[in-house]
Design brief:
This protein starts with a helix and ends with a helix. By secondary structure, the protein is an alpha+beta fold. The chain contains eight helices and twelve strands. Strands 1, 2, 3, 5, 6, 7, 8 and 10 form an eight-stranded mixed sheet that branches. It has a four-stranded antiparallel sheet with strand order 4-9-12-11. Residues 1-18 have low confidence and may be disordered. 15% of the residues are buried. Helix 4 runs antiparallel to helix 5, helix 4 runs parallel beside helix 6 and helix 6 crosses helix 7 (361-370).
């Protein structure tokens, strides 16, 4: 019985020892892939220099971090996948326990010298330190990058604009006979993947990611580039609420100021206050829009025209106020002249009354003898009051006629300018919104 157990133990031990154990290091040793071996990292990995290295590139948009119109800067966060073939690397997975791929540090293998033409700031995000190596020599490198790139933006229809920003990728020194660039995904697939993984868009709505190949020649050499075009549309609600609507509200207040009486000073002060408010909004707009643009932004035209109309309205109010003040001064001079004439007439009447009393003294004595003293005194007081009342009524009627004339032409000026103002504003707003929608 002990002999049978011993034999069984020997059989199981031999079976366990016959099972082969492999590691990634076995593959690395087989390939002689070390940091000191320059054959894998010094030159382009082809056995014949006439062979081109086919680099497949795939880019997925993960987030839109910033779109700065003032500096014409586009900042996306992208995932980049590169795949190429190293002809010096190959092994049989059957000899290494089915190992088909492993990862190695980036510094141990040659990598394509691809760069982004529009990039204006070095990427400071942490890089993936490893690359995948497959048994057939396929190398896969994956990176996530924050790209600060320049973008030529068209802000003509701001804030209802659609921007297209390019990321052009190409080799720095290898021309088309050495490195060929191929997209791994077409435009529709890249757009779909980007929409699925996108986490942040901000005020922008991502529309499409299109891919195109472009070759250019320089110094008798031809390079191949891949152009990734990101199309995005601005969400205008915030700018409409914070900018466009307040300007319309101020314009409505300026229109309502025509119902304020012209002879009061509140109308002029009210218009100046509204004009200053528009000036503050123009300063805010100046901080948003770029200094140079091929076309004048519609929002700038919108603000300047409304500002000009409100300035014209203020000038019209100043003119009407000046003319009314001038008329009031003329009326005061006329009143003083009337008073002086009244004093002269009273003096003349007093002198003539004295002479008449002197001449008609005998007759007055006879009348006084015939009329009682109390009744004559009452009649004289009534006559004097009637004369004073007649003079006062004549003066008031003359002043009211002059005020009615000045108020009449002031109302005509205001009415004509109000009609012109309403017509101009309506036509301008219709044209500007039609232009925004086209």
């Amino acid at each position: 019985m002990m002999h049978v157990a011993f034999l069984l133990l020997i059989v199981f031990t031999d079976g366990a020892s016959s099972k082969k154990v492999c590691s990634y290091q076995d593959v690395v040793d087989y390939l002689n892939l070390t940091t000191d071996n320059g054959a894998f990292k010094l030159t382009r990995p082809v056995l014949d220099y006439k062979h081109s290295t086919m680099v497949e590139l795939d880019i997925i948009l993960y987030a839109i971090l910033a779109v700065i119109e003032k500096t014409q800067t586009f900042v996306p966060f992208i995932w980049v996948t590169m795949m190429w073939n190293n002809e010096r690397i190959s092994w049989d997975p059957a000899q290494f326990c089915g190992i088909t791929h492993f990862s190695v540090p980036r510094e141990m293998l040659w990598r394509p010298d691809l760069f982004i033409y529009e990039m204006i700031q070095k990427d400071d995000s942490p890089q993936n330190p490893y690359m995948y190596v497959s048994y057939d020599g396929t190398i896969i490198s994956e990176e996530d990058m924050k790209v600060v790139s320049t973008c030529k933006m068209d802000v003509h229809k701001f804030p209802f604009d659609t921007q297209r920003c390019n990321i052009t990728i190409g080799s720095a020194i290898h021309y088309v006979n050495e490195i060929r660039l191929l997209p791994s995904s077409n435009s529709s697939r890249a757009t779909q993947f980007s929409r699925e993984v996108m986490k942040s868009q901000g005020e922008w709505e991502f529309l499409q990611l299109s891919i195109a190949s472009y070759n250019f020649t320089f110094d008798d050499r031809q390079w191949e580039n891949l152009i990734y075009t990101f199309t995005m549309k601005r969400r205008p609600l915030l700018h409409v609420i914070n900018f466009l609507l307040p300007i319309l509200f101020f314009l409505s207040l300026d229109l309502a100021s025509y119902f304020i009486a012209d002879h009061r000073g509140e109308k002029l002060g009210f218009k100046v206050t509204v004009l200053l408010a528009i000036s503050v909004l123009l300063l805010i707009l100046n901080d948003i829009l770029p200094s140079m643009s091929n076309k004048t932004p519609l929002i700038a035209t919108y603000c300047i025209v409304i500002f000009a109309l409100m300035l014209l309205s203020l000038l019209e109010t100043i003119l009407v106020t000046y003319l009314m003040e001038k008329d009031s001064v003329s009326r005061e001079e006329l009143r003083l002249r009337d008073k002086q004439e009244k004093v002269k007439i009273d003096n003349c009447n007093a002198a003539s009354d004295g002479e008449k009393q002197h001449e008609l003294l005998p007759v007055a004595e006879e009348v006084n003898n015939s009329i009682q003293p109390r009744e004559s005194h009452v009649l004289l007081l009534i006559l004097e009051e009637l004369k004073e009342l007649q003079k006062t009524l004549n003066l008031h009627l003359r002043c009211r006629q002059e005020v009615g004339k000045s108020g009449h032409w002031a109302a005509k000026i205001n009415r004509a300018f109000f009609i012109f103002y309403i017509t101009t504003v309506s036509l301008f707003l219709i044209l500007i919104f039609i232009e925004w929608n086209t």
